[in-house]
From TrEMBL:
Reactions catalysed, as given in the entry: beta-D-fructose 6-phosphate = dihydroxyacetone + D-glyceraldehyde 3-phosphate; beta-D-fructose 1-phosphate + H2O = D-fructose + phosphate
Cofactor(s) annotated in UniProt: Mn(2+)
Lineage top rank: taxon: Bacteria
Family, per entry: Belongs to the damage-control phosphatase family. Sugar phosphate phosphatase III subfamily.
InterPro entries linked to this entry: ARMT-1-like_metal-bd_sf, ARMT1, ARMT1-like_metal-bd
Species for this entry: Cylindrospermum stagnale PCC 7417
GO terms assigned for molecular function: metal ion binding; phosphatase activity
Protein name in the entry: Damage-control phosphatase ARMT1-like metal-binding domain-containing protein
Alphabetized UniProt keyword annotations: Hydrolase, Manganese, Metal-binding
GO biological process terms on file: DNA damage response
Residues of the Damage-control phosphatase ARMT1-like metal-binding domain: 27-386
Pfam family, one: ARMT1-like_dom
Amino acid sequence: MVNPHIPKLPLPAPLVGTEVGSFTEFTVTQRMPAIARRVIAENKFPSQINQSLEKLAAELPTGYLPTLADDTGADFTAWEQYLEPYKGQRWVDVPWFFAETYFYRLILDITNYFRPGELQGIDPFELQKAQGLEASLDSIISLCSQVDKWLDESKKAGKSNQASVIALLYFALWGNRVDLSLWSAFEDDRSRFDIQNQLTHILVDDAFSVSELLTSAKGGSIDFVIDNAGFELICDLCFVDFLLGSGLVNEVYLHLKPHPTFVSDAMIKDVHYTINFLAAGSHPKVKSFTERLQANIASGKLVLTEDYFWTSPLAFWEIPSALKGELAKSSLIVVKGDANYRRLLGDRHWDYTTNIADIVSYLPAPMVALRTLKSEVAAGLKAKNVAEVAKSDPDWLTGGQWGVLQLVV
Ligand SMILES: O=P(O)(O)OC[C@H]1O[C@](O)(CO)[C@@H](O)[C@@H]1O
């Protein structure tokens, strides 16, 4: 009998850092140490904390998982259980998704994020997040002006244009190219892209079916499992603004991270910071965008919510039943970004042509994944496309230049 709570298919092995030459190995042994060192460089933590961060960075390539101290974090007891099966193992031996989520949780332990005191609540990635937002200001102005027009048109026509929904889906997809754990906000502005040119870079494109689902299911609520702050968050908020403003949906829930993680992942405070930052600017279309968002938050149409599941090492099918119950009310669950996609697939070695609906068979509502590829995990691709893209771009799985927009109903 099929179990509705887990994937239909037997689980393949998880990605691990011992896979020689893989992006996973590169991440655990090189990218993660670099991220820990960037936390030292971009903050003014006391030298004792910096020494501990440096120790963490140095141990990642060959060292063993340290224990987690009881730093008063609400998720401490849960982490003790998550750690149990991996005690005494090296960073490169444990499942990659576990290694990454634990690494970010340890940074918070080291920097006293949860402990009462003057460092409590200091986001170690604050500078990167703020920079990411400021660097994309021109693109933000263009997008907000466009959304304003679309909202106007939909009001005049008395219905929303499906083409606007599709365009906003593409923005929400390509906004995900901006990820500060891969590309520092100081290196590049990745918010500039051309939606039309990017179409050839979408490996699975269910945008039309998603737009049909949204335009036919008038009213109701949708859930966004949010990924990065910065330009990606703006793209998501523009989409939300349009969905609420055109009356396509009545309520939107944004699921945000309860603590800093994966460098740029958005928390509730980042949404407020973003809105306040833009509201303080002078562009009228950007200002009206922020006013609509503020009004929607105040009226309860736009709900900002967080859960420790989103920062846990658990696969998506291990979602707590209360949270799953919340998602069950949704007309559509929008799952943003690479790390959330990895969670959907349990960060495992599925054959890339596996039917994604046979893996993500456990969700209580329709789901669309909007993800640019930044890790060696995929499903639902056509063998022909895999062969072609692998030939044209050797880094197609990890370079963030290719995307999928996959609907599972
Ligand atoms: O912001 P996103 O799209 O979740 O990307 C983060 C992902 O990218 C990486 O930095 C590269 O794989 C991972 O660590 C993580 O899966």
